[in-house]
């Protein structure tokens, strides 16, 4: 979900000011990236330096207390692009920051061929099975992004269940470890798609709708905030503090007014 634009940024800035005034408790914000191309490697490194210095970075499925003195942030990557292995993974390892990479199992080792808006993403290749195995570590997990990078809400319950189950089995065979987290391609989901993912044995699933996640969050579905290595420092700080968490409410209101 695109979070650029002066209006959204202004609302997020106002939300941030209000949160500080009201002393809103810290929460977990899950960030998601796609590509980290070579010319944006330094920008990504600066963002990771900010996270390392000012937040507690945890895995996206964190279930403990999030009400500490510092905000909590989780780092995720959709699509498992080779630029992530080349540029992001070494930077994360240097700073000992945990992250999760969501891979479309049917595209491993191939040039990405699904619909994409970003020119950077259109030039990307998905990691091969060997590359996925190589990036695994105690601080880097692999999750599923379906088989074919499909819109899970559009394919119907049976196909959604197949996409979830088969991709999980394939990635577990590749990685040699349990795969129990799923990120919805395009953020396309509905109740049937979430149920299909849950039925395939996943513990957590992730959307592309921003959310501040508090302690005791038991639902399978968690929201995430889109971030780019090219984001300005101001915009990145707003995102890492969960300042776009108002967007789900705005989206629901927009749909209600159209109904």
From TrEMBL:
Compartments it resides in: Secreted
Q: Name one GO molecular function term.
A: hydrolase activity, acting on carbon-nitrogen (but not peptide) bonds
What is one GO biological process annotated to this record? carbohydrate metabolic process
A Pfam family assignment = Polysacc_deac_1
- What GO cellular-component annotations does this UniProt entry give? extracellular region
Top-level lineage group: Bacteria
Residues annotated as domain NodB homology: 71-259
The UniProt keyword set, sorted, is:
Signal
Q: Per its database record, what is this protein's job? A: Is involved in generating a small heat-stable compound (Nod), an acylated oligomer of N-acetylglucosamine, that stimulates mitosis in various plant protoplasts.
What's this protein's family per the entry?
Belongs to the polysaccharide deacetylase family.
Tell me the protein's name. Chitooligosaccharide deacetylase
The species this protein was found in: Novosphingobium ginsenosidimutans
């Amino acid at each position: 979900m695109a979070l650029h634009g002066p209006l959204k940024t202004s609302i997020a800035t106002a939300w941030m000011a209000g949160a500080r005034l009201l002393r809103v408790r810290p929460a977990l914000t899950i960030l998601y990236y796609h590509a980290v191309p070579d010319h944006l490697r330094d920008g990504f490194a600066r963002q990771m330096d900010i996270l390392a210095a000012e937040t507690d970075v945890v895995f996206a499925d964190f279930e403990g207390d999030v009400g500490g003195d510092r905000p909590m942030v989780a780092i995720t990557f959709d699509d498992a692009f080779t630029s992530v292995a080349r540029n992001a993974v070494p930077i994360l390892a240097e700073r000992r920051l945990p992250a999760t990479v969501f891979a479309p199992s049917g595209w491993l080792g191939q040039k990405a061929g699904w619909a994409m808006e970003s020119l950077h993403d259109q030039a990307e290749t998905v990691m091969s099975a060997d590359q996925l195995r190589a990036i695994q570590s105690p601080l880097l997990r692999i999750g599923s992004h379906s088989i074919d990078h499909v819109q899970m809400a559009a394919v119907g319950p049976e196909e959604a269940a197949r996409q979830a189950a088969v991709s999980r089995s394939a990635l577990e065979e590749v990685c040699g470890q349990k795969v129990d987290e799923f990120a919805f391609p395009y953020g396309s989901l509905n109740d049937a798609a979430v149920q299909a993912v849950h039925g395939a044995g996943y513990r957590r699933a992730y959307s592309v709708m921003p959310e501040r996640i508090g302690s005791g969050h038991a639902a399978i579905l968690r929201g995430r905030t889109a971030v780019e290595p090219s984001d300005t420092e101001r915009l990145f700080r707003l995102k890492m503090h969960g300042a776009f968490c108002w967007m789900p409410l705005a989206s629901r209101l927009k749909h209600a007014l159209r109904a």
